[in-house]
Design a protein that fits this description.
This protein is α/β, with parallel strands linked by helices and 252 residues long. 42% of the residues lie in helices and 15% in strands. It has one domain: Alpha-Beta Barrel (TIM Barrel). The chain has twelve helices and eight strands. Strands 1-2-3-4-5-6-7-8 form an eight-stranded parallel barrel, surrounded by six helices.
């Protein structure tokens, strides 16, 4: 059985509660009857519960944009996996490049977040990707292998089977620059090789690897035609129902 595509919208620090509910309602309306792919949206924490309520009993999944590793405690500003689940989330993004680049999150911290999500039955979306300087210095594969292996450190085979990986070249996020389909496919195939080495080939063939980085209605079809690209993590284009709808309904 092939990997089921996943189209995920990361709303980042956008939308009030009312705006988020309106967008979520429009997204869910366009997904009725869809069974050959999955759709996920990640609203800001302030809107997560309201969005989850708006898409309840629809095919749309809801995710947190980040997740802590403890059930509760003195962690000001963090949101626990139990809180995310209570608000209606089924998934959580970890290691997004903006968390790594702007907020200094290390591979070790990303790993703690990922294991915390798994411990409380959230599906983690592990983001990995190189900067422009790292690509120009020929370090892309080294960076990807380090981020994948360290992100999955101490994660069992059975738990790793539940993880989704998103390849996001940092130089393509919000810049309008998109990796060519060949560049994206090369990176995805390499990540699958790393997974096979860390676990085994069957797991590597089963895990979904999404592409993220200026995904638009104009490039989604060509990206999804590549054999190792299993979906997309969409930023700006996910904030408009029309553009996100076209991405969700990609054609290959």
């Amino acid at each position: 059985m092939g990997r089921r595509p996943l189209i995920a919208g990361n709303w980042k620090m956008h939308l009030t509660v009312d705006e988020a509910v309106r967008l979520a309602t429009a997204v869910s309306a366009s997904c009725w009857g869809m069974n050959d792919r999955e759709v996920m949206i990640a609203p800001p924490f302030t809107a997560l519960a309201a969005v989850a309520a708006a898409v309840r009993n629809t095919p749309v999944l809801v995710a947190g944009q980040n997740v802590a590793w403890e059930k509760e405690g003195a962690f000001t500003g963090e949101v626990s996996p139990v809180m995310l689940k209570d608000a209606g989330a089924a998934m959580a993004i970890v290691g997004h490049s903006e968390r790594r680049q702007i907020f200094g999150e290390s591979n070790q911290l990303v790993n703690r977040r990922l294991r915390g999500a798994l411990q409380f039955d959230l599906v983690p979306v592990l983001c990995v990707g190189e900067t422009l300087a790292e690509r120009e210095e020929g370090k892309t594969f080294r960076v990807l292998e380090e981020q994948v292996r360290q992100g999955l450190a101490n994660v069992s085979f059975d738990a790793a089977c539940r993880v989704v990986i998103a390849y996001e070249p940092v130089w393509a996020i919000g810049t309008g620059r998109t990796a060519t389909r060949e560049q994206a496919q090369e990176a995805h195939a390499f990540i699958r090789e790393v997974l096979a080495g860390a676990y085994e080939k069957n797991l590597a063939e089963a895990i979904r690897i999404l592409y993220g980085g200026s995904v638009k209605p104009e490039n989604i079809d060509s990206l999804m035609a590549e054999p190792d690209i299993d979906g997309a993590l969409v930023g700006g284009a996910a904030l408009q129902s029309e553009s996100f709808d076209r991405i969700v309904h990609f054609c290959t």
